Structure formats: C-alpha cells, structure tokens
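Hi support team,

I've been running sequence recovery on a batch of backbones for a student project. Most finish fine, but this one hangs at about 90% for roughly twenty minutes before it completes. I'm not sure whether the input is malformed or the queue is just slow. I've pasted the structure tokens below so you can try to reproduce it. Let me know if you need the job ID as well.

Thanks,
M.K.
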C-alpha cells in the first residue's frame, strides 16, 4: 500500500519569463510601464506535470509601485497582447504527462493496424 502523502495532485505554478510592458494600472488609472512575470499553471499528479491549464501575470507598476499578483494574462492587461503572447509559451515538457498517458493507446492502435495489414 502506498502512503497517501506520496501521492500528491492539484495545480502548481512555475515562472515562464519576465518582461517590461505598457499596462493599464488600476491605481494610476493610465497606461504605465510595468515589470511583468508570466506564470504558467499546471495540473500535476505525483510530481509529474500532466498539462498546462492557464497563465497568470504578476505585475509591478514602475510609476506608483502597485503590485498585482495572479492577474489574467490577456488583452485587458497588455494592449499589444497578440504580439506578446507568442513569447510566453508553455515549455514543451509540460505536455509530457499527456504524451505518457496517450502512448500505450497509440502503440495498441498501431499494433492493430499492422496486424490487419499483414493478415
């Protein structure tokens, strides 16, 4: 029997990258430069990342010092979001859990196709 404290699951987060962008500050009520750290959220099971489930931004305004943690990383935060989002993609290894779960099924399907072709 496996002890319950060894099987952990839930949502974890990990920093993706840091940048400086023009954002709408709620305190200054205008567009100001801010330091932004993009954080990826991931579902995990027993220390294995299953798949990414979203992104958040931690923002610090350079004018007033207002700090926002967990802000949605979307067009409401950054005016040129469509240009910026390509720089903050989840790393490839975060999809490893899905690949490992799908691998046995893919092997069985390929095996069945090979058996049908040669019979």
């Amino acid at each position: 029997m496996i002890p319950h404290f060894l099987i952990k699951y839930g949502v974890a987060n990990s920093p993706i990258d840091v940048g400086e962008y023009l954002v709408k500050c709620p305190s200054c009520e205008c567009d100001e430069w801010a330091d932004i750290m993009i954080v990826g959220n991931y579902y995990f099971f027993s220390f294995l990342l299953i798949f990414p489930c979203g992104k958040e931004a931690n923002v610090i305004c350079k004018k007033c010092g207002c700090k926002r943690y967990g802000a949605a990383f979307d067009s409401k935060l950054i005016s040129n979001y469509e240009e910026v989002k390509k720089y903050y993609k989840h790393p490839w290894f975060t999809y490893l859990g899905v690949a490992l779960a799908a691998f046995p099924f893919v092997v069985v399907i390929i095996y069945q196709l090979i058996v049908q072709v040669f019979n």
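--
Follow-up from support: It reproduced on our side and the slowdown came from queue contention, not your input. Strands lie at 9-25, 30-45, 48-61, 67-72. No action needed from you.
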